[in-house]
Amino acid sequence: MIESIPNLSEGRDRASIDRIVGVVRQAGGRVLDVHVDPDHHRSVLTIVGPPIVAVESVLSMVEIAIGAIDMRRHRGAHPRMGAVDVIPFVPLAGSTLDECTQIARAAGREIAERFSVPVYLYEAAAMRPERENLADVRRGGLAAVAERARTDAGRPDFGPDRIDPAIGAIAVGARRPLVAFNVNLATSDLHVAKAIASVVRASAGGLPGVKALGIPLRSRGLVQVSMNLTDVEATTVPAAFARVTKESARRGVEVFESEIVGLVPRAAVAGASAEDLLLSRDLSEMILEARLESR
After folding, report:
1. Which fold has domain 2-174?
2. What is the CATH number of domain 179-294?
3. What would the pLDDT profile of 103-136 be if each residue is shown by its tens digit?
4. On the chain, which terminus has fewer CB atoms closer than 10 Å, C or N?
């Protein structure tokens, strides 16, 4: 079993999202969760299955998504560089990160050859050390990636070096499980969210294994500290929530709620309840192991 968590640059057209999810299921992929965010203008699918099924499901998804999503009209708060922005492969029961690395590279090559879409390999699947960090691959957004693609240093790992502005490019990678965890603040002041993100992120000396951004939620009049917890043994969800809550209080701002994007390993939230974290969903519905057992 492996897991794939494609990120699509569509979070507002529910009909298109449902169509894409339907294609994944028709290809045999088990869709455990679909997270849709209109402010981010992004949807995150959690797909599990044997490697061959997961890959075929992803290929079917790419074919439909690149025809349904037009990046020329995309406006959203989340960084992105393509209609299908990111496709990570993650080891589950009976699989390893090395296997997922080979799967990601093979899937990336197949996507590029079948659909003529530029593909960049990242994290464990990266074939260049400077592409291990997804943020470096996606730096500057689609326009900047398209400009770099014409240079030796920025050329995609697979596919054409000319990027179609309607489709963009895709990052395909292999990684260990992470948790996408967002904390929404009861203010519209984006400077507050950015200041807190700069304090909690690991690269600035904050929490280990944490990447963080400040993002506006304009439809709700809120701002968000959007985090990826890349090492949940070093920083759990309750620890990240406590730190953001502390930094918010220092700035006189209340935490409105939090959300987990997709599913979360049980150990990452051990000892916490939905009430403790101000989650808008029942925490039991978001535990990865429980979903796998129930399916």
Report:
1. Formiminotransferase-cyclodeaminase; Chain B, domain 1 (3.30.990)
2. 3.30.70.670
3. 999 999 999 999 999 999 999 999 999 999 999 9
4. C
